[in-house]
Amino acid sequence: MKPSILLTNDDGVSSVGLWAAYEALAPIAEVTVVAPATQQSAVGRSISIFEPLRASQITMNGIPVWSVAGKPTDAVIIGLYALRLNPTLIVSGINIGENLSFESIMTSGTVGAALEASNQGIKGIAFSLQVEDQGDKFDDPRNYGHNFDAAKGVVRDVVSRILADGFCPHADVINVNIPSEVKGGYEVTRLARKLFQTGVEKRFDPRSRPYFWINGPLLEDAEEGTDVHAIRMGNISITPITLDCTAYSAEDEARKIFLE
Prior knowledge:
The protein contains seven helices and eleven strands. By secondary structure, the chain is of the alpha/beta class. The chain has a single domain, classed as Survival protein SurE-like phosphatase/nucleotidase (Stationary-phase Survival Protein Sure Homolog, Chain: A, 3-Layer(aba) Sandwich), CATH 3.40.1210.10.
């Protein structure tokens, strides 16, 4: 029997990235799509605990899928506990736009879904595709015109390797970032500190009241060995991530400050 995969994302159930992942995985696994009904980028691991959730089974591209009126984390929880799926793996993506650095993975709904999967006992893999034009992240994900052929090959190969060899024993999530143009092979990386140069732009509405846009350009590069640098070099970044955020190297200093 084929292994089973719960496929989700944060760009919404109609995103071409999600369906590219489905096409990559369907030949090697039984794939069930449980994804947000609408765009949910940058919601991280937020969860809907103050309102009920609706999940509807609909047909897209001739395939029955579950559309969840909530966040990526909600979709994972609905899939596991309401639909009672018991997948071998949970795959999140393919996200339209890279998810690199501490900065990005803490807010990414794509990575958030994979983290929630692992938190619930099913290992998660997150896939993201670099975009050359950052505006593409904000366009309709149903109509993104990028060719996904290379990305689909990466998704199938990475998942096939993990199904064959097992998940990295000390990792909870594998964060995979695919350059817009693949020039090299896989590179196992660590997270860079930042992806963007954070800024805020102040504007005024027609009544002269101020409002603000959080913005900022991408950093051109980061140090060698990081996910940001790997993507800038055209390599496929493979970053093992853990749910444990404990700063073990700070324990001794913390004891000096608080216990001595």
